[in-house]
Amino acid sequence: MSALSWVRRIGLRSLLLRQGYIWTAAVGPVLAHIMRREGSPIVVRPIPGGFTASLRSLRSKGELQARWQEEDRRWRPESSSHRLLHAARHRSVDLELPPDFTLTQRVKLPEAALTNLSEAIAYGLPTWSPFEIDEVYVKGSVDEVQAGQARIRLSYALRTKVDPLLVRLEDAGLPADRLVLDAMSGHSVTLATPKLTRLRRARRIDGALAIMAVSLALLLGSLRVMVLAQRLEEAETLLRTEIAQFRQEEALRATYAAFVARRAAVSERRTKEVGAYELLLALAEHLPDEALVKTLEIGSGRGRIDLSGSSPDAAIKALRRIPILQNLKIEPSREPGSVTAGFEISRKGQ
Fold this sequence. Notes:
The protein is an alpha+beta fold.
């Protein structure tokens, strides 16, 4: 019955730990899935006479691709594109502009202007270029800051050149949500499209629902853990009761044997110990008749004795002849003609 309780206890403990690991490990993948929802855009790249669109698939760990060519002033897909067009309803679309669409420029600004770089660029753009801020899509980044001056790398594209491309992409079913002006420097401009607003709202809702689901799962897991912990505590209590009963039965069956063993142990210990009476008899037998014991201290197998009234040499020889006195140490005498010695009490060979 004890073995069964031990098996039950080990099984419950393993189940408790396994449940805790499961609930803890579930949080990471869920949050990672929410973060992945923010990525994986459809990337559109213009090519001569058309454009290509691609989407990296997280499930298949591959890439969906399609190609559009211009026919009768319309872009028509050369390969199957229904999956990409369907995905474009639920994902953002990035338009990577080719190099001939963009201009780059490096300018200098005071370091204080970095607190609001976009406004500083909008204010200074007419002085750096022949364009107003509403004539271009522009993005800037900091190359370096030195001596209170910041070197800014600008990338911009003319709206008169980009907007017709945006209209044609929308007609093809791939309305762009972001313009990638320079992929190397990470310059991109987010367009105020209804789809992007809807996607961001949906992601926020998904995130809130996922957090609620994780919280609910953790709560249910905690309740499960509490139930398992209570069952484990009950099993441990039952096990302790069974062990106590088993020990009582064993004690009753072995009472006589334990009593005999204890009695033998006590007898053996007593034969090894040296009592005060035995020590006094040994001193009376070996010390000279004229020797006087002034003090005798005994405790924890050690002792100390002060002798007077006899020759110190004779007294020391007499003490050395007593078998039960071991490790005799002669201490400096306090009075002339007296002997002070410390010793250990034990039987030889024990």
